[in-house]
């Protein structure tokens, strides 16, 4: 069973900050991340991604700052975009009331809750981006991750697969559902011709692209290639149809988008007990942070449902927080934490990918001064 590392969203904050009667102040700013090349999904092609950052500090010691990221994904984030800027300003203006916002003040703004949670933990650990100290942050251990292959034309996807395998990944994740299904099958078949399931683990992510009418047929076809699992074969919100698929599919199903927007523990329990998936995937930035994600993990393990953690296209700031938290949970499955290399204007950090594993290199420094100054 995973270690419930976080427990309460402000436990370490109270211990580290409250002890010294810190006079909290906060500010925020917007930052547009630019993709190195267009990122294709079944929901469209992404050229840029919007993130907001919350910076918290002690009025009497402004040199130490905690940073948290609120990343937004069009068509996936449930944050109320019309009220987003006003809400993040409100949170920063009332930062002394963080307990309210972490407990029940941000039900429509999971991204802001994650950013606030992260920024406060960071500040509570001296504002050095070492949020959850461990052998990972000491540079003594690393995290196995999957190699992400974006949608695109056949040759483009094939080239990505070759690059990932050559660079040492033993787990490949393919985004499917945008090009023809027969082409996607041909790609998977080409991998299996050279690598068995013992050599390369293949995960696929449909992002809800299949229809409920053709989903089971496609799942049966995919299962011929000994895949690990498929994420979200049909669109979220169809609990009865998804439950039927999970019961009859020869290929294990992982819920992803299905979890977004489910806040109460009663609804989380109801979803898992109704659909009975083989796996769930935790994206803290879309689910409202670490405590919300750990509630999902606890319920999943009680129902003998597997799980793993992924980022949601955050910059290295959000990715760093998620990776450190995930490491402490002790799940040895490959995690989805390989997105830090996607952007031209990401922040320099100690996070490095080598041979299919994410490392925290102590010799590399954080470079994010312009962000902090800009806020």
List key phrases describing it.
Enolase-like, domain 1; 13 helices; 7-stranded parallel beta sheet; globular; TIM Barrel
What does this structure look like?
The protein is α/β, with parallel strands linked by helices and 375 residues long. It has two domains: 11-124, Enolase-like, domain 1 (2-Layer Sandwich); 143-374, Alpha-Beta Barrel (TIM Barrel), CATH 3.20.20.120. A hairpin with a 2-residue loop joins strand 12 (351-354) and strand 13 (357-360). The protein is 35% helix and 22% strand. The chain is built from 13 helices and 13 strands. The chain has helices at residues 11-16, 84-93, 98-103, 110-124, 154-166, 181-194, 215-223, 239-248, 265-275, 284-287, 290-302, 316-329, 369-374, and strands at residues 24-41, 44-58, 61-72, 143-144, 147-149, 171-175, 201-205, 229-231, 253-255, 279-282, 306-309, 351-354, 357-360. Strands 5-6-7-8-9-10-11 form a seven-stranded parallel beta sheet. Strands 1-2-3 form a three-stranded antiparallel beta sheet. Strands 4-13-12 form a three-stranded antiparallel beta sheet. Mean pLDDT is 90; it is low at 1-9.
């Amino acid at each position: 069973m995973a270690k419930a590392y976080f427990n309460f969203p402000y436990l370490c904050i109270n211990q580290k900050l409250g002890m010294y009667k810190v006079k909290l102040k906060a500010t925020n700013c917007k930052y547009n991340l630019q993709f190195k090349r267009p990122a294709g999904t079944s929901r469209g092609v992404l050229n840029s991604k919007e993130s907001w950052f919350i910076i918290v500090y002690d009025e009497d010691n402004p040199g130490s700052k905690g940073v948290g990221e609120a990343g937004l994904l069009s068509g996936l984030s449930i944050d109320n975009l019309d009220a987003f800027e006003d809400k993040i300003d409100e949170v920063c203006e009332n930062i002394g009331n963080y307990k309210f916002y972490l407990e029940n003040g941000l039900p429509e703004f999971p991204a802001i809750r994650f950013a606030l949670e992260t920024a406060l933990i960071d500040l509570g650990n001296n504002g050095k981006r070492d949020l959850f100290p461990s052998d990972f942050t000491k540079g003594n251990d690393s995290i196995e991750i999957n190699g992400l292959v974006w949608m695109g034309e056949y040759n483009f996807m094939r080239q990505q697969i070759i690059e990932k395998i050559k660079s040492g990944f033993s787990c490949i994740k393919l985004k499917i559902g945008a090009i023809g299904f027969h082409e996607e099958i041909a790609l998977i078949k080409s991998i299996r011709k050279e690598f068995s399931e013992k050599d390369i683990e293949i995960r696929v992510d449909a992002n809800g692209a299949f229809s409920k009418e053709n989903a089971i047929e496609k799942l049966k076809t995919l299962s011929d290639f000994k895949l690990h699992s498929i994420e979200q074969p049909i669109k979220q919100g169809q609990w009865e149809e998804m439950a039927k698929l999970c019961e009859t599919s020869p290929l294990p199903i992982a819920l992803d988008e299905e979890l977004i927007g489910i806040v109460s523990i009663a609804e989380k329990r109801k979803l898992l007990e109704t659909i009975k998936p083989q796996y769930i995937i935790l994206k803290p930035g879309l689910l409202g942070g670490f405590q919300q994600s750990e509630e999902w993990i606890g319920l999943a393990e009680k129902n003998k449902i597997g799980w793993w953690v992924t980022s949601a296209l955050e910059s290295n700031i959000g990715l760093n927080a998620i990776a450190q938290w995930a490491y402490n949970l002790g799940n040895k499955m490959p995690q989805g934490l390989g997105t830090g290399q996607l952007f031209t204007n990401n922040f320099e950090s100690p996070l490095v990918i080598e041979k299919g594993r994410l490392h925290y290199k102590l010799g590399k420094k954080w470079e994010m001064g312009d962000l902090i100054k800009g806020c």
